Predict the structure.
Amino acid sequence: MSTALRHRLPYRRCAAPQARETPARSIPRVEHLTDVVIASFAGGPKNPPWRHNLIANPEATVELGSERFRVKAAVTTGEERQRLFNRQTEQMSIFADYEKKTARQIPVLVLTRIG
């Protein structure tokens, strides 16, 4: 069982044109008002495959419950990235643990609805 499932994160299913041969992924949803996802990969040394796919093909389809909509992904940087990451660590301290486990900066992506 994935770490995110053990911590009962709300999930969305995100399907983007694949940059690699990988299936659509379920990605933990971070914020409820803004669609934000964190590519923590449980603090692993590499980014999760879905992050690579969203960078290569930023337009994707999201399924959240019975709702389905198109989004465009963008990687956050600087103060915005830190603010969003901090907000998540305040809600779920496991993300602070993930940050301590890895030498990489954990990417935070914003999914903006389109169309």
The chain has one domain: 3-114. The helical segments are 3-6, 49-56, 78-91, 94-101. Residues 3-114 form a domain with the Pnp Oxidase; Chain A fold (CATH 2.30.110.10).
